[in-house]
Amino acid sequence: MKEININTEFIKLDQFLKWSGIVSLGSEAKILVAEGLVKVNGEICTQRGKKLFVGDKVQFEEQEYSII
After folding, report:
1. Which one of 5, 48, 58, 68 is most buried, by most CB atoms within 10 A?
2. Best CA proximity match to 36, nearest among 24, 47, 28
3. What is the residue extent of each domain of the chain?
4. Of 45, 23, 49, 26, which is closest to residue 35 (Cα–Cα)?
């Protein structure tokens, strides 16, 4: 599991995907989320604007990321 530090109260899912290096473009993040390829706290999430907070976990493919 990779730990990703954020400096704000929350981060939106599409921004998190860019911040963590999963994608390089916002358009890529939009596609991954829309296709249901990203899980938040174990459940598929199709809301690219979903707010993520410290303690949330994001999964993409076989990798899991924890927000700290």
Report:
1. 58
2. 47
3. 2-67
4. 45
